[in-house]
Amino acid sequence: MINLRLLWTWDHCTQWTAARAGVHDYGASNEFSGTAEDFVREYSLLLRWCGRHGIDGVVVWGLLRDGHGGVEAARRLCEVADQAGVKLLAGVGLNAYGGVYYEGDSEWSLNNHLRKHPELHAVRANGQRHICHVPGNSPQPFHHACPSRPENLAYCLDSLRWLMETVSVHGVQVESGDTHVCECRLCRERRQHPVSALSWDDMALFYGPAAEAVGSVRPDATVVLETYSHPEPVTDGTVPGFGGGSPPSVAQCLAQFPRRAYVQWVADHFCAPRRSAPWTARAPAGFAGNIMRAHLATWWMGRGDEVAVDWLAQLAQQSLAHGFNGLSIFGEKSPFRTGCELNYLALADYGSAANPGADLESFLTRVAAPLLGGPERAAEFLRLARLIGAPEELERAAAQARRHAAQLDGRPAGRWTWLAWYLSRWLYDAQG
Ligand SMILES: [Zn+2]
């Protein structure tokens, strides 16, 4: 069974009202253009929808910013989450991604900590401070802390305890950083294993104490540990970066991870639509659970708002077959966008008591059909939506979606109107 279903978000991309200016389609570490009221409204809608539809938790990156109300706004969201019966998990970069307080005049902002203590900054091989600037969709630079400096570990643990004492989130998803690692002498001598853009030794060093710090304030907190990887063994001597498999050394590092936590893995290259490698590995035993996360239906690696209920069914089936009990997908956009709505509902359904085998037909018949005007229409919705990849069929597909919309009323008609519009965008671009 799947017993932890998460929606993953960045604050600056999260739009749960149907119409709102100033949000990003996708990306990381952007500015938040809006007010505290905007932030609270968007996430309140998201949290309440999750509570009504069986999604267990929401991960928020950028939870704490001066620009959208800081601690006060985050506390209000925790109350909303409590009322909705949904976990609010803070996304926390331990050595990168801003730390506990993503942006603002707070001592718990990692950037402020490093500004105050430049000697604690991570460095590159050339001795320069490690400041990663990802071109395109992540305009704010990532300042990295050196994980080998005990001052940084102590700061990280203090900041996690502060977070749990001050904001009462239900838990955290922590990351050690996947945009290259510190290459100072201390780090090079400490690490037992080779690195790529990420380091399993760094994860092993921080994740245990981090989980302990969180649990010391809130023993029932949900702790999710990001690995940036899939557990599939890699035996060619390489050390993959984000989304790759696991070299033999991973077992030693994983053995140091705290057992009370969920370990989070990346499915993207091991499941539809990108499957480029076989998936034989089982989830490691002994943890609270193992979560498979995929970049489905987002502009990261794919197409935003895309109907992905069939791919998600395959992901859920593979996850169940290999001992995983958690799933996570992006949750930034409103269910007004029918692709997102269907994906979120499928996330809630697959691996549940109503659909233990994550069967697509069962989902379409029980869940999607009433929303789309019947079981035949539900199947056709999925078929037509997938034709964004077939330019020669787009015109007919959009016309068919318009016909269904015209034959229906209310939200079912609205959902077909969304599909007609969605297909029309691809058609417009295909026609140049
Ligand atoms: Zn270092």
Question: Can you describe what's shown?
Answer:
By secondary structure, this protein is α/β, with parallel strands linked by helices. The protein folds into two domains: 4-356, Glycosidases (TIM Barrel), CATH 3.20.20; 373-432, no CATH class. The chain is 39% helix and 12% strand. It has an eight-stranded parallel beta barrel, surrounded by five helices. The protein has a two-stranded antiparallel ribbon with strand order 4-5. Strand 1 (4-10), helix 1 (36-53) and strand 2 (57-61) form a beta-alpha-beta unit. Helix 4 runs parallel beside helix 6 (200-217), helix 8 (309-321) packs parallel to helix 9 and helix 10 (360-372) crosses helix 11. The protein is globular. It starts with a strand and ends with a helix. The model has no long low-confidence stretch (mean pLDDT 96). Residues 122, 146, 148, 182, 184, 186-187 line the site of zinc ion. Residues 122, 146, 148, 182, 184, 186-187 line the site of zinc ion (ZN).
Short structural description:
This protein is an alpha/beta fold. The protein has 13 helices and ten strands.
Which characteristics define this entry?
binds zinc ion, 10 strands, two-stranded antiparallel sheet, eight-stranded parallel β-barrel, alpha/beta, 39% helix, 432 residues, TIM Barrel
